[in-house]
Amino acid sequence: MDGRLLTTGEPHLEAGESAPLVRYFDIRWDSVLDGPGVRCVVHLQGCHLACPWCHSPHGQPHDSPPLVLPFEGPNPPFLGRSESPAALFRRLSPQLELLRRIGGLTLSGGEPLDQVEASEALLRLCRVRQHHTTIETSADSSWDTIERLAPWVDVWLVGLRVVPTTVREERVPEPSTVRRNIGGLVRSGANVVVRIPLIPGYTDNPTSLELARRILDDEGVTRVELLPFNSAIGVYYRAMARPEPHFAPWDELSSLERAHRILKTSARAVTYATVHPH
After folding, report:
1. Closest CA to 122 of 87, 160, 173, 165
2. Residue 50: which domain range?
3. Total number of domains in the chain
4. CB 161 within 8 A of CB 196
5. Largest separation between any pair of C-alpha atoms in the chain
6. Inside any domain, residue 115
7. Using alpha carbons only, how large is the chain's radius of gyration in Å?
8. Which residues contact 173 (CB under 8 A, 6 or more apart)?
9. What CATH number should be reported for the domain holding residue 182?
10. pLDDT tens for residues 15-61?
């Protein structure tokens, strides 16, 4: 596809005008942490979960919440924006053209699967222009939603957070649902990378890691990325005037070594990624 500017007269863009609005709270134009190469990342607003360790609490509500200023984080988030998939694609298009050979678009959250129609419309526009696409998701959704988006997604980054049963009373991902969706994607031939954040007191203990290993083994996952604990999340809770979550003391090196030892197999690559505040 050529790199000419897009106009409203193009049929694929006109279809994007009629889709539901995309609600988002941030755009990162050149991330190297959210998929292959350099990514243009759209953080969609809204998540049906309320994980106690969430490092993007401002991405949870359906609409972007007001922030209590001054905001002290390194990258102040948008106060929320909504626009049609076609309008957003026009906004992203110059950057996506620059990234054509070295990266692409990533939809992150919040939870992009919670805006399935808008996400599908934006991904379809990318496919028409042959831009590489990635979704970063908890995969805590119906299989119908996964199946609907699958034709338009090149890489799935699926967060796997297996936590003690005492935590599951809260709105955290349901392991059986996530397992089913990971397995379905792997069996369909999708490019799946499972990401496991090492959250002290939740996912970095031997019990949780052994349960995660069992899911990875049973579903044939061959690529895992370990994400370090993001200790900078407190600024977002303070900006929203919400109580900060408290975590057990964390030793990054020992946590990483333990997770790598439990999860690595001869058939599965386990690498160490990094995170940035959203």
Report:
1. 87
2. 20-272
3. 1
4. yes
5. 57
6. yes
7. 18
8. 49, 51, 138, 139, 140, 159, 161
9. 3.20.20.70
10. 556 779 999 999 999 999 999 999 999 999 999 999 988 988 989 99
Q: Domain for residue 206, yes or no?
A: yes
* pTM confidence score: 0.89
Which residue type occupies 87? A
Give the type of residue at 188.
S
Angstrom distance (rounded) from CA 210 to CA 160: 12
Specify if 53 maps to a domain.
Answer: yes
Asked whether 61 and 45 are in contact (CB, 8 A), the reply is yes
Q: How far apart are CA 206 and CA 3, in angstroms?
A: 50
Residue 54, token pair as written in the block? 């969430």
Average pLDDT over residues 156-183: 87
Residue 9's CB is within 10 A of a number of other CB atoms, namely: 7
What number of residues does the chain have? 278
Hunting for tokens 């690595």 — which residue is that? 264
Does some domain include residue 13?
no
Q: Within 13 Å, how many C-alpha atoms sit on residue 219's CB side?
A: 28
